[in-house]
Amino acid sequence: MKKVLITGIAGLLGANFSRYLLKKGYSVIGIDDLSGGYIENVPVECAFYNFNLTDSKKVNEVFENERPDYVYHFAAYAAEGLSPFIRNFNYTNNLIASVNVINACINNNTSKLIFTSSMAVYGEGNPPFTESQLPSPEDPYGIAKYAVELDLAVAKNQFGLNYSIIRPHNVIGKYQNIWDKYRNVIGIWIRQSIAGEPLTIFGDGTQTRAFSDISFYNEPFEKLMTQYCGEIFNIGADKPYTINEVSDIVIEVAKKYGYESSKVFLEPRNEVHVAYCNHDKAKSMLQFNDNTDLQKSIDSMFQWALGQKNREVFYTDYEITKNIYSFWKK
Fold this sequence. Notes:
- By secondary structure, this protein is α/β, with parallel strands linked by helices.
- Helix content is 34%, strand content 15%.
- The strands form four sheets. It has a seven-stranded parallel sheet with strand order 3-2-1-4-5-6-11, with helices on both faces. The chain has a two-stranded parallel ribbon with strand order 7-10.
């Protein structure tokens, strides 16, 4: 029985992938500080450690005690638009924490580390983005993710650490944090619909993204344990939608469950306007097959959200308030 350690196990990727691995007979260990996920998301069959990965001593203790064969590093705070206003928090939790995991993998001879990067590394680019495109991130979150990618290449060359990199984007599904004010737009809209609030849209809603269901990720993720060391893969949906189009779907689904929703257009954010990826490499090498039906996925997520307890939505502590958007002011 292979032992797999998942960081961020209480989040969307970790909660879903851990359940998949358990069904396949793997032994699963999870680490999460529960700042962006919830203990209810963690399977009871997992050995669970509750702490922040910035604590290098605790990271090393877990690796020394558990000796995982493979590590999936999902933990991150993925709020691109917010990251310029929380620069220290961003780099500490997305870069330094990742370095602690990389160090522990090297020191404990972990067979392989699979790292989830982000489409944010591409910046404005030329969509659909391909893995061969030179990264040019435009926000601190994308910069942190790209820095980890570069560090992994050094760790492989100098210490022989095997790794693969996944660049998922706009993933939705059960166990996503819908109470985060700053990220997971479809989740935010579902929460707003249930609360009787209008759906908030930054700018004119012509921003373009491609949304994918988490259920199609598990098999490709598992393949990366033993295949394609040093490779980078985009994983996500091919079909792009405007934000207006997606908000219309959420409004339609909400109406099905008795919730009348509307839209409110707020000031635009500083963000890449059109961002989606090409997935030919993952399709060819990992047999990745995304069959996301966005209406069905949003419907399923809405049903799940209706069964969740009512949680408070918190503001974060900003490090910079200069030029903060009006809708984020306290």
